[in-house]
């Protein structure tokens, strides 16, 4: 399996704190069957300034330690890049690291609570520049929770979506889990990743969530979201994902609106 979204690099964001903890983190991932793990530290102005060259250097250092520890895991550079207007320029000049350092696939982070400005146009501009946006954990974004059609519009413009293991298994609460189910059923997400920050509360494991997702997508598609599709994105290719379910074309309110609009007398 391939985990495209982790915070394994020690001491540079809110993830792993030490190199020893990073080794333990990598061992947990390897024991779960993960063979490729992408280090995606936050990249956000005013909080975590992690440029491409710095991330590549951190990854090289940790690779050497993992090799010394004989941990069978391929570690690749990347970042979770916060949304901003000049993303195309940032990718080109190295301020915004790409997945696998391929110069093409961008793991894009939105605020969990604040509304983005002109998101569809940003997706369009990225695609026009040959950059493939992968939206991190859309099931946890209030903007999408309130109206899933906003997220669906981004997918139809060529963005891909990454659902988080914790959302699938219920760690992040019922609202994230419910939207995860809806997106998986409607084939609107394409990657399952851990977004792991540590070895206990948010560990780098995929197998349980893949098994749960298979109830809604079928086993073959669930496995492809943890292997084939992430591999394509790492290689800078457009993954051969199935089209959204036809149900997606029908006007729908968000699951929150449908829930609160029910007759509960």
- What is the chain-wise order of helices and strands? EHEEHEEHEHEHHEHHEHHHH
Radius of gyration: 18 Å
Backbone structural class: alpha/beta
Strand content: 5-15%
Q: Based on the structure, what is the oligomeric state of the protein chains?
A: single chain
Strand order of the largest sheet: 3-5-6-7-8-9
Number of separate helices = 12
The poorly predicted ranges are 248-253, 257-265
Tally of DSSP β-strands: 9
Shape: globular
* Average predicted confidence as pLDDT: 93
Q: Report the biggest beta sheet as strand number plus sense, adding barrel if it closes.
A: 6 strands, parallel
Distance between the termini: 46 Å
Helix content: 40-55%
Can you describe this structure?
By secondary structure, the protein is α/β, with parallel strands linked by helices. The protein is 41% helix and 14% strand. It is built from 12 helices and 9 strands. It has helices at 19-31, 52-68, 87-93, 119-128, 142-146, 148-156, 165-169, 174-185, 207-217, 219-224, 228-234, 255-260, and strands spanning 2-6, 36-39, 42-43, 74-77, 80-82, 105-109, 132-136, 160-164, 191-193. Strands 3-5-6-7-8-9 form a 6-stranded parallel β-sheet, sandwiched between helices. A 3-stranded parallel β-sheet has the order 1-2-4. Strand 5, helix 3 (87-93) and strand 6 (105-109) form a beta-alpha-beta unit. The radius of gyration is 18 Å and the shape is globular. It starts with a strand and ends in a 5-residue tail after the last helix. Mean pLDDT is 93; it is low at 248-253 and 257-265.
